[in-house]
Design goal:
GO terms for molecular function: metal ion binding; oxidoreductase activity. It is a single chain. The protein starts with 5 loop residues before the first helix and ends with a helix. It is built from 5 helices and no strands. It has helices at about 5-30, 35-60, 65, 95-120, 120-150. The chain has one domain: Ferritin (Up-down Bundle), CATH 1.20.1260. The radius of gyration is 16 Å and the shape is globular. It is mainly α and about 160 residues long.
Length: about 160
């Protein structure tokens, strides 16, 4: 990734969030079971929320969103660290969908950590720190869902 300035970084991140939302929305339409469809649509909405935050950052309208945000340490159980990248195919199992989403969150977290390291202002750092925390929360949630599901299956 070779960026000339912070706007380039933010534009890149916005595109990544759009891509993720479109991905989840698109594959939700290929699933037959309503539970999996709904889960994928919820993932898409989380990505759209991040997209809006980044668009607000670029427009200089971050203020109140950040003022009320509570930062806290999110545990990383590193489940996705031991999972290969997963390619989507219609009808894939629930555990496979969770693995796919875990890896995507892991990659997004890595991206935002890089962006945090390159942020220029305190406001930008706070936004990227918040995005890191949000991705870490999603990753932990998915990894916990995966562990719970696998435990129910006897693994």
């Amino acid at each position: 990734m070779d960026f000339k300035n912070l706007d380039d970084i933010i534009d890149f991140a916005i595109e990544k969030e759009k891509e993720a939302a479109d991905f989840y929305t698109g594959i939700s339409g290929q699933e037959r079971f309503s539970g999996k469809k709904q889960m994928l649509l919820e993932f898409a909405e989380q990505e759209r929320k991040h997209q809006r935050l980044l668009e607000d950052l670029k427009a200089g309208q971050v203020g109140a969103q950040l003022d009320d945000y509570k930062f806290k340490w999110i545990t990383d159980i590193k489940r996705s660290d031991y999972v290969e990248d997963v390619t989507y195919h219609p009808g894939m199992g629930y555990n496979e969908l969770l693995m796919l989403a875990m890896k995507r969150e892991e990659n997004a977290l890595r991206l935002y950590n890089e962006m945090l390291a390159n942020a220029e202002t305190d406001a930008q750092k706070k936004v990227f720190k918040m995005l890191c925390q949000e991705e870490a929360k999603h990753k932990l949630s998915l990894e916990t869902m995966y562990d719970d599901f696998m435990a129910e299956m006897g693994d």
